[in-house]
Specification:
Helices cover 23% and strands 32% of the residues. It is an alpha+beta fold. Helix 2 packs across helix 3 and helix 3 crosses helix 5. The chain is globular, with a radius of gyration of 18 Å. It starts with a strand and ends with a helix.
């Protein structure tokens, strides 16, 4: 089940949930060091919840949390860890002159297939997905949000010192996203709050993907995303069919 009202008033007994691909600790530390050097404008709030969001689930009844966890475990228990390559920082927002978010693009065909698999397993089990129709899935790592100048109009402050420092070569990867977590986040006037060590309800560790490194060459990924993931992953048959149909 999909919908577009995930940002509505949650009401009692509801939690705002998302599913994310967790980064290795060494990668998180390197991104944090880069944030300190590159994101210096006072209008920027560093994002300390450094993870690649795979899917927003919206505000869901607390009783459904266990169903989402079981669905994630069903899909990911034998899944290989996706390989990820980060790119240099980009600005995002409805108006180019007034960005709201700064992010590092994440190249990961395998994470894209994993996201499709999650969509499929949630849908097959009748679980809600917050999926705005105008937004396609874009793998990325949010590194900063722009403070709001006017909370009534939600207009962001002007970023005068735009970040342009390249990320270090070590962050360009590839590295493995080692686990998938179910997170709880809180909406505040300044945006979603999801701190570094907080909000994680549970997760599933992904198995080592090192045997698949032979699928890569110096020019990038070799083969289609479905070849890279389904070839080494015994995913449920109904999910595998949806993945092949949508990629």
């Amino acid at each position: 089940m999909t919908g577009g009202n995930g940002g509505a008033n949650p009401g009692r007994g509801r939690v705002r949930l998302l599913v994310a691909l967790d980064l290795p600790e060494v990668v998180r530390r390197e991104v944090e060091a880069w944030q300190q050097e590159a994101l210096t404008d006072p209008s920027l709030r560093h994002n300390h919840g450094l993870r690649i969001v795979l899917m927003f689930l919206g505000h869901r009844p607390q009783r459904e949390v266990i169903r989402y966890l079981e669905a994630i475990r069903e899909l990911c228990a034998s899944a290989p860890a996706p390989l990820v390559e980060l790119g240099d920082v980009v600005a995002k927002g409805p108006v180019p002159e007034l960005p709201r978010v700064f992010a590092l693009p994440a190249k990961s065909p395998e994470a894209e297939v994993l996201q499709i698999g999650l969509r499929s397993v949630f849908t097959n089990q009748g679980l809600y997905i917050y999926e705005p129709r105008e937004r396609a899935f874009w793998p990325h790592l949010t590194v900063a949000r722009v403070r709001t100048a006017d909370h009534k109009s939600r207009r962001p402050e002007t970023v005068r010192d735009l970040p342009n420092r390249p990320i270090p070569a070590s962050l360009r990867g590839p590295f493995e996203g080692r686990s998938v977590g179910l997170y709880r986040s809180e909406m505040q006037p300044s945006g979603a709050l999801l701190a570094a060590g907080q909000g994680r309800l549970a997760g599933v560790d992904l198995r080592d993907s090192l045997p698949r490194r032979t699928m890569m060459d110096g020019k990038g990924w070799r083969g289609a995303p479905t070849d890279a993931l389904t070839g080494t992953w015994s995913m449920p048959a109904t999910v595998a069919g949806s993945v092949r149909a949508l990629t």
